[in-house]
Write a structure and sequence with these properties.
The chain is of the alpha/beta class and 163 residues long. The protein has 5 helices and 7 strands. It has helices spanning 2-16, 60-76, 92-101, 116-120, 150-162, and strands at 30-33, 39-41, 49-55, 81-88, 108-112, 128-132, 138-143. The protein has a 5-stranded mixed beta sheet. Strands 1-2 form a two-stranded antiparallel ribbon. The longest helix is centred in the middle third of the chain and has 17 residues, at 60-76.
Length: 163
């Protein structure tokens, strides 16, 4: 009986927790809902580079990364690039507070309170960023954040945009 239960657990957990995306993968389309309840899909931005970033308010590196992503969004404009900033694992109430503070940014702010989208994207830790090219395929995945990585990240985004 113990072997059966262990085998069943392995099968179930394998289907619940996806591995992180790899370059060339097609990411899950529906990423969540905005503060007003509008569904956001990666396919809404076909033809643009899309940065999907998972974060939470309690995550120090995430809070350092958010203004950087906002700056990238602002400098690139939404004609060429769209940042989808996903609040991961926090209550809808907390998301609304944070979204209020970030109001006015061109980033799409999305809630993933139940972590459903994060599981589909293979998120095991945050910040977790997936860069999607204009054709809708994963071009890069970054887990973690470091200020020393910023120049290389900006170069990488520009290179993906030129393809």
């Amino acid at each position: 009986m113990k072997i059966f239960i262990a085998a069943l657990f392995c099968l179930c957990s394998a289907s619940i927790f996806a591995k992180p995306y790899e370059v060339g993968d097609i990411p899950h389309d529906l990423v969540g809902k905005t503060i007003d309840g509008t569904e956001v899909r990666v396919s809404d931005f076909k033809g643009k580079v899309v940065i999907v970033s998972f974060w939470a308010s309690w995550c120090g590196p995430c809070m350092k990364e958010l203004p950087v992503l906002s700056g990238i969004q602002k400098s690139a404009t939404t004609e060429k690039l769209q940042v989808i900033s996903i609040n991961y694992g926090e209550s809808r109430q907390m998301f609304k507070k944070i979204a209020g503070v970030l109001e006015g940014t061109a980033m799409k702010l999305v809630s993933d309170a139940n972590q459903r989208t994060g599981r589909k994207y293979g998120v095991e830790g945050i910040p977790h960023m997936v860069i999607i090219d204009a054709e809708g395929k994963v071009a890069a995945v970054h887990i973690g954040y470091g200020e020393s990585q910023l120049p290389a990240l900006v170069d990488e985004i520009n290179e993906i945009a030129r393809r």
